[in-house]
Amino acid sequence: MAADSPRKSLDDLVAVMAALRAPVTGCPWDLEQNFATIAPYTIEEAYEVADAIQRGNLSDLREELGDLLLQVVYHSQLAQEEGAFALPDVIDGITRKMVRRHPHVFGDDAARSAGAAKGFWEKIKAEERAAKPAPHGLLADVPVAMPGLTRAIKLQSKAAKVGFDWPDLAPVLAKVEEEMAELKVEIAAPGGTNRDQRVAEEFGDLLFVMANVARHLGVDPEDALRGANAKFARRFRRIEERLAALGRSPAQSNLAEMDAMWNEAKANERSG
């Protein structure tokens, strides 16, 4: 953008999106899209925002926030075409919600002087849910499209609020051992038409209870797994570097050699 070019606004972005979706003159790819086909990009962009934050790269964060904003505009354009709502309705709704959920900031003198009482956020959200058509059960409003571990935490937390929870970590860890034993049984079972399905089910049960361990420990399992992924990638890169110095690649090595290099990288990290 030229130095003297006026800055683009949200209205400009909305106009660009409308032009992309314009029949005949719009972009063929954009004209083929719908809520379902765009949803994966929305999730991906949210993760890229989180990644930029984790890396501490504010330049990337600015760009990724723009990509995420585009997703909001995109879905709003699709909804407007169906006559459901438009971007101003989205903005109006979230603004009103934020004001409503912060009476200690935007309320009357009494509400502001009372401050943010413990549990006020959950209380207001409960009141909002009560005003909507009743969902089918306590867990019905936990989005299915959430990442699996995150959704497991949400489901468990909601159930815990009505008393369906272990009192401490010990029985949860015992459940881990139980689920691991059940997984081993299915792995060792003779092959059959349903064996793979049974193994997958038991593996899912193990992941679900591991999410429960994380919840009891106050650990975000997605963050913990991202950290483990980064650690694996970092240490494997050390193996690649060591082998490259020897004029070889991992494909030209073997497990014993690479495992020794892995342990060396691990020891170096721990020693600082």
Keywords summarizing the entry:
single chain; 272 residues; mainly alpha; Helix Hairpins; extended
Task: Offer a quick outline of the entry.
This protein has 272 residues and is mainly alpha-helical. The chain is built from 13 helices and no strands.
SSE diagram, text form:
Elements lengths: L9 H11 L7 H4 L3 H21 L2 H24 L5 H14 L2 H4 L2 H6 L5 H12 L16 H14 L7 H20 L6 H23 L3 H25 L9 H17 L1
Would you kindly provide a written description of the structure presented here, covering whatever features stand out?
It is a single chain. Helix 1 crosses helix 4 and helix 10 packs antiparallel against helix 11. The chain contains 13 helices and no strands. The model has no long low-confidence stretch (mean pLDDT 91). The chain is extended. It has 272 residues and is mainly α.
Q: What name does the CATH topology of the largest domain carry? A: Helix Hairpins
CATH architecture of the largest domain: Orthogonal Bundle
Percent range for β-strand residues: under 5%
Q: Could you give the count of β-strands?
A: 0
DSSP summary: helix tally: 13
> What is the 3D shape?
extended
